[in-house]
Amino acid sequence: MGRMQNRWKPNVTVAAVIEHGGRFLLVEEDTADGIRYNTPAGHLDPGEDPIQACRRETLEETAHDFTPTALVGIYLNRFTSSRSGADVTYLRFAFRGELGQLHTDRPLDTGILRAVWMSLDEVRACHALHRSPMVLHCIEDYLAGQQYPLALIHADPSIYHQPQPSLAA
């Protein structure tokens, strides 16, 4: 079989579904498409597993510590980028967990205007402004009690180290 010229690689992201007293923690973002709402979310970076990425992204976007306790689901969506016209696919790992300390002196990530608590009705009312169609889907799955053990996610220790060049000739 010949070498594939353009191997398809979805963008891997993580998201935190955080609820307290019937309200959900979302972030208001300034994007190329205008103001959008999202659960705390972002890309998986090299050298981290999805659980670590979710902790990091939640801290960066909300200034809160977050400890994932269960996987809500794994979501796949596809769209055409309004900026580049590119065909983009996201593979999202959504987690539920425990919200920790708020670091009031910590600046929020670039593009994040604020972290905001919203009721389910408010989240549904701004559906057209969601960063992804998966925002509401993840929240509804959370409310339905969907959760899976974190042990479903396995990360080989090799991901935490820079790969070494092969010595094979």
TrEMBL record:
It is an enzyme of class 3 (hydrolase). Its cofactor is Mg(2+). One of its GO terms (molecular function) is ribonucleoside triphosphate phosphatase activity. CDD domains: NUDIX_Hydrolase. Residues 7-142 form the Nudix hydrolase domain. Keywords: Hydrolase, Magnesium. InterPro entries: NUDIX_hydrolase-like_dom_sf (IPR015797), NUDIX_hydrolase_dom (IPR000086), NudJ (IPR033713). Gene3D superfamilies: Nucleoside Triphosphate Pyrophosphohydrolase. Monomer. Belongs to the Nudix hydrolase family. NudJ subfamily. This is Phosphatase NudJ. It comes from Corticibacter populi. The lineage of its organism: Bacteria, Pseudomonadati, Pseudomonadota, Betaproteobacteria, Burkholderiales. The gene is nudJ.
